[in-house]
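hey so i finally got around to running both of the ones u sent me last week. sorry it took forever, my laptop kept dying halfway thru and i had to restart like 3 times lol. anyway pasting them below in the order u listed, first the sequence line then the structure token line for each. didnt double check formatting much so if smth looks off just lmk and ill redo it

first one:
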Amino acid sequence: MIVRAGNQVPLFTMYTLKKALGQHFLKDQAVINRILDALMADSFERLLEVGPGGGALTAALLQLPSVDFKAVEVDTEKVNYLQTTYPSITSKLIQGSILDIDCPFAEPFTVIGNFPYNISSQILFKILEWRDHVPVVIGMFQKEVAERAASKEGSKVYGVLSALVQADYDVTRLFDVPPDAFRPPPKVMSAVIRLSRRQTELPYRSRKVYHQLVKQAFGQRRKTLRNAVRGLFDAEVLQDPLFDRRAETLSIAEFAALTHRMKA
């Protein structure tokens, strides 16, 4: 059981907020409670929090019974603060960047976090590297990144991030979060999304060629697919009218099907 507080988390002055690290800490307990509710919708035995910062989420996560909890934090000042404020976290803290650490568990684990906005896309790509270990992610992102991760073909923001993330995960936008829920308030809206690992693998020829095709197709998104990916297909294949379209009109299933027609 998680003990929930009122509408605001305490405002601490024992640390500084660093713009270079994209630090915008949650202060609205109602938002925190909604994130916790989203987390508890799935069962899990191991949990990694990314960027615990001032501990707004961490205070509740440490209360979870029978959960192997770890947190990764790059900021030494925040590590010291967390160890002082929540002594039980000391053995559970990994000091470093989520982008640089090894997979923290040998068994499946859930990921949660108010992700630093300056590296949030990179965090998603890191999670894709760990996809076999991570069935669920509950994450706070800049709204623009959340929209890109969740968008479908035909959307103006559908792109590389969308097609790569959705090859491994079903993405659900849960709710938006206004700037005044943070300290300091960011200049953008935020959103919480859930990533749930796909039950069946996308039927591509291989993950490697799927990634190659998607990245090249969106690398020149203003061009027709024929011009953008010409070097990946034989001339005969390129005569298919499908190649008259642009990358943002193709679903991930269509990209996966195309991988089987690429040059060996």
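and the second one:
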Amino acid sequence: MAEGDFRIGLNEVQVGIQMPPLILIALRRLVGPRQAEHMAVGGELVSVQEALRIGLVDAVAPADQVVNRALEWCQHLLALPPEAMLGTRREARADLCALFEEDTESELREVTATWWRTETQNTLRALADRLRKKS
């Protein structure tokens, strides 16, 4: 993530959308159950340093070096013995990958439906109005 006055998170609740269960599970896996609940329920966006501290991002770099740092990380992985690296990575992420192998069609329909609820549309309109006034 780029250094600076930036924030990152999942602000679905702030804009009137229920957090999709699959995304919440992935967030919980990444930052832990208590931090995930706190971030998701409040739609909290965290600072760069907080994102690094809780494990939401792996590294922080000056903005003009973010892409190069990401490429260096990828090159490092590609330089490792591929079967060992890929097999280990597959095992380390097996729980997360399994979630995407399940039938998520009903979850997708439910999440999509939340976009069209009156509360969600009102919240999104109010947000759009606030953003329009800022620009």
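quick thing i noticed on the 2nd:
Helices lie at 21-31, 33-42, 48-54, 66-79, 82-92, 94-101, 105-114, 118-134.
anyway thats it, ttyl
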